[in-house]
Amino acid sequence: MIFKLIQLEILKVRRSLALLMMLLCPLMVTVLCFFIQLKNHKGGPIRWEMYWMGNTAIWGYFMLPLFIALATGLLNGNEHRNSTWRLMLTLPITARQLFLAKCVLALIFVIGANLALFAQIAVSIGIFGLAGFSTEQAFQYDFVRSFLLASVCSLPIVMVQHWISWRVQNIVAPLALGVVATMGIMQIGQSKDWVYYPWTYVMMALNSKAPDIAARATTLSCLVAGVLLIIATYWVGRKGAEFQ
């Protein structure tokens, strides 16, 4: 049943604004970094590793947390706006199954956005090549590792934002939480207290030069996300179809 629900949810968002944002949010990052590189280029070969890291830094610091807030808000907001929660729950499914299906859908969108980011970075490098820049060693960056880290370490954010957007009808609340939480990444991420702030996990995993920090952020992400998922799913099962 859960797999059929996921298929149904995917069909429902084929032409949605959330799907468009999955492509546009990464594009905003790559376009920004592309023109920054053009503006700051002063001759000589482009340092491609720094170019990749610049894109992933802006993505992890700023755009990915905001995208998660926006995507989860839109995915659940459609049901709030059209008053279809109770209609869905009249079907032979439980609230927990629907909650988990929506959660999986949110994860698919995050993975899709991460894939779009790295694909668009590769395209931008190709454009540099067409413009006459040397692209030697441009793809020696371990973008597969970065993609996996970005996807795994965003799990706690997805769990929090998904629960908020499920529980609250007004999309402003999850978006406001996303903005406020994102604003704290820079300051808290530079302190030893980053381990208590899940919004820093992506940034620490992607941009820390110490392998043990990336491993710690990944482990914390899995643990925190697992705990949050269990708590949220249990809560949904108790509360049923009650929404604010």
UniProtKB/TrEMBL annotation:
Keyword GTP-binding on this protein?
no
The domain of life is: Bacteria
Keywords assigned by UniProt? Answer: Membrane, Transmembrane, Transmembrane helix
Q: Which residue ranges traverse the bilayer? A: 16-38, 58-77, 98-131, 143-164, 171-189, 213-236
UniProt xrefs under Pfam families? ABC2_membrane_4 (PF12730)
Q: This protein is called what?
A: ABC transporter permease
Q: Which species is listed as the source?
A: Undibacterium danionis
